[in-house]
C-alpha cells in the first residue's frame, strides 16, 4: 500500500520563495534552499519548486534555484513554471529535478506531453491542471490562472493522461490561498476520472483539510505552501494527525 | 571510493550522483565499454523505457562489458529500470531481450493506478549485506509501471496489486526496484551498504 504523500511547494521568483496567494498578492517568504532542507528533515515526501515568474524572467535564475534546492534533498523534486519544450525540460532535469511539471504550454500544444513522456518517461511528467468552477463542472485556466480556456477540466485531465502524463497536479483557483480547504468535489472527480496519481493543491489551512482531501477527495498526495512556510504546522505534526486518523503515511 | 555510473543517455543521473557523493563516493559517468574494464563498483540507474535502455546498452557495447565486469567480481547495483534489465525480458518491450541474468519476465503491475508512484514498504525475505541495518517494513520511493515477479534471488518484496521483487541479489549483482537516491536517510543507508560490500 502506498503512503499518502505530503508535498510542500516553493513558489519562487528571482531566487526567493514567495507566497500570499499563489495567483495574486505575492510576498517574500524565505530562501528556497533553507526551506528545502527543513522540509526534507521534517519528513516531506516530495518537494515541488515552481517558477511563478516564468513568463517575465529569464531561465538562468530558476535553474540555479533548482540546483540549490536539489543539493539539499534526499527526496524527489518536481520543478516547473514556463516549460514549453523538451530542451527546457531537459535543462530543468539536468539541474537536479526528478520530474517536470507543465501547464500552459501543454494546454496550448498537447503533443508536448507525449514528447516529454517519450523522452523522459511518464514517471517524470506531471501535468498541472489549474481549474475553477464554471457554469457546468470545472474549467481549465492557464497563464497562472489569468486566462480561461473553455476546456472542461475532467476532459483535459483524461487527455493529458492518454498523452503520457504520469501524474496530475490539480489546483483549485477558487480555493488557492483562501484557506478554505481543498476543493473536494473537484479532486474527487479527477481521482475517479484518471488512472494516474493525483496531487491536490490549493486551499490547505488546517490538519482537518488534509485529512479530508485524502479521505473524501481520495487524493494520492496533498500539496501546500503557506501553512508550512508560516510554521502553522510542521510536516511531522501533520503526519502524526493523519496517522492517528487511520491514514497510511510515511513516518 | 570510485563508482562507475552507467550513462546510456537518460538525462537523470544527477540524483544518483548526488546521493553517491553524499555517502562518500566519487561517481564517474561511463558511456563506453572500455571504461568498465577497471570498475569495482558499478551503478546501473534507469528511468524510461525497457526497450530504449537495452538498445542503448547494446549500441554502446555495454551488454558484454557489464557481463565481463560482473564475471570478474565487480559489484553492480541496478536501480529501477536497472533492476528490470537483469531479467530475460519485459512486457514493456516484448521483442527486446534483457540481460537475462535472472529468470523471468518483467510484467505490467496489475493495479488500476499506474505508475506505482510514491512511498511503499518492503518486506525483507532474506538478510543480505545490502540491507544491513535496514528493518523490514522500511519505506522507499518507487516510480515504475512494470516489475518482475519474485523468484529465487529476490531478497525483498513489495506489494502493489501483486507482490513483486523489490530487492534482488545474485552473487555480486544486486538491484532495487525503488530509488534509494530519493528515499531519504534509509536510501542513503542502502547506498552506503553497497559501497561497503566486499567488491
The largest sheet of chain B has its strands arranged as 2-1-3-4-13-12-11-8
Q: What is the succession of H and E elements of chain B?
A: EHEEHHEHEEEEEEEEEH
Q: Report on the biggest sheet of chain B.
A: 8 strands, mixed
Secondary structure: helix percent of chain A: 25-40%
Poorly predicted tracts of residues of chain B: none
The number of distinct β-strands of chain B equals 13
* Shape estimate of chain A: globular
What value does the average pLDDT of chain B take? 94
How is the biggest beta sheet of chain A arranged? 8 strands, parallel, barrel
SS-based class of chain A: alpha/beta
Proportion of residues in helical segments of chain B: 10-25%
How is the topology of this model organized?
The complex is a heterodimer of chains A (251) and B (199).
Chain A: E1 5-13, E2 16-21, E3 24-30, H1 32-42, E4 47-51, H2 60-70, E5 77-80, H3 86-94, E6 99-102, H4 104-108, H5 111-120, E7 125-133, E8 138-142, E9 147-152, H6 153-162, E10 167-172, H7 184-193, E11 198-201, H8 207-215, E12 221-224, H9 226-229, H10 235-244
Parallel strand pairs in A: 1-4, 1-12, 4-5, 5-6, 6-7, 7-10, 10-11, 11-12
Antiparallel strand pairs in A: 1-2, 2-3, 7-8, 8-9
Helix pairs in contact in A: 1-2
Chain B: E1 2-6, H1 14-22, E2 26-30, E3 41-44, H2 50-59, H3 62-71, E4 75-79, H4 81-84, E5 87-90, E6 102-108, E7 116-121, E8 123-124, E9 139-144, E10 146-147, E11 154-159, E12 163-170, E13 173-176, H5 184-196
Amino acid at each position: 500500500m502506498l503512503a499518502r504523500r505530503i508535498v510542500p511547494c516553493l513558489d519562487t521568483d528571482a531566487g526567493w520563495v514567495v507566497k500570499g496567494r499563489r495567483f495574486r498578492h505575492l510576498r517574500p517568504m524565505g530562501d528556497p534552499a533553507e526551506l528545502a532542507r527543513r522540509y526534507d528533515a521534517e519528513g516531506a515526501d516530495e518537494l515541488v519548486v515552481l517558477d511563478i515568474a516564468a513568463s517575465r524572467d529569464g531561465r538562468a535564475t530558476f535553474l540555479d534555484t533548482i540546483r540549490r534546492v536539489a543539493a539539499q534533498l534526499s527526496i524527489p523534486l518536481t520543478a516547473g513554471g514556463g516549460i514549453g519544450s523538451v530542451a527546457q525540460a531537459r535543462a530543468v532535469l539536468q539541474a537536479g529535478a526528478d520530474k517536470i511539471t507543465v501547464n500552459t504550454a501543454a494546454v496550448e500544444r498537447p503533443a508536448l506531453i507525449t514528447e516529454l513522456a517519450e523522452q523522459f518517461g511518464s514517471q517524470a511528467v506531471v501535468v498541472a491542471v489549474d481549474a475553477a468552477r464554471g457554469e457546468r463542472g470545472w474549467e481549465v485556466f492557464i497563464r497562472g490562472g489569468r486566462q480561461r480556456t473553455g476546456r472542461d477540466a475532467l476532459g483535459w485531465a483524461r487527455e493529458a493522461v492518454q498523452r503520457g502524463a504520469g501524474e496530475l497536479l490539480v489546483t483549485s483557483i477558487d480555493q488557492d490561498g483562501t484557506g478554505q480547504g481543498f476543493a473536494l468535489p473537484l479532486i474527487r472527480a479527477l481521482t475517479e476520472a484518471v488512472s494516474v496519481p493525483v496531487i491536490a493543491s490549493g486551499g490547505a489551512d488546517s490538519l482537518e483539510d488534509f485529512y479530508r482531501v485524502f479521505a473524501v477527495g481520495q487524493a494520492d498526495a496533498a500539496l501546500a505552501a503557506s501553512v508550512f512556510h508560516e510554521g502553522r504546522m510542521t510536516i511531522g505534526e501533520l503526519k502524526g494527525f493523519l496517522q492517528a486518523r487511520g491514514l497510511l503515511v510515511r513516518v | 571510493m570510485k563508482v562507475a555510473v552507467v550513462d546510456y543517455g537518460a538525462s537523470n543521473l544527477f540524483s544518483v550522483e548526488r546521493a553517491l557523493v553524499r555517502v562518500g563516493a566519487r561517481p564517474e559517468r561511463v558511456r563506453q565499454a572500455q571504461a568498465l574494464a577497471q570498475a569495482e563498483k558499478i551503478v546501473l540507474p534507469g528511468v524510461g523505457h525497457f526497450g530504449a535502455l537495452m538498445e542503448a546498452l547494446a549500441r554502446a557495447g555495454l551488454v558484454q562489458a557489464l557481463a565481463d565486469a560482473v564475471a570478474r567480481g565487480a559489484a553492480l547495483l541496478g536501480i529501477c529500470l536497472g533492476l528490470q534489465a537483469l531479467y530475460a525480458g519485459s512486457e514493456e518491450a516484448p521483442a527486446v531481450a534483457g540481460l537475462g541474468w535472472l529468470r523471468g519476465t518483467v510484467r505490467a503491475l496489475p493495479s488500476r493506478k499506474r505508475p506505482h508512484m510514491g512511498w511503499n514498504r518492503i518486506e525483507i525475505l532474506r538478510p543480505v549485506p545490502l540491507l544491513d541495518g535496514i528493518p523490514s517494513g522500511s519505506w522507499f520511493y518507487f516510480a515504475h509501471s512494470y516489475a518482475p515477479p519474485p523468484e529465487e534471488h529476490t531478497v525483498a518484496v513489495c506489494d502493489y496489486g501483486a507482490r513483486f521483487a523489490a530487492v534482488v541479489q545474485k552473487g555480486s549483482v544486486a538491484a532495487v526496484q525503488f530509488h534509494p537516491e530519493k528515499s531519504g536517510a534509509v536510501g542513503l543507508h542502502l547506498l552506503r551498504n553497497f559501497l561497503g560490500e566486499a567488491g
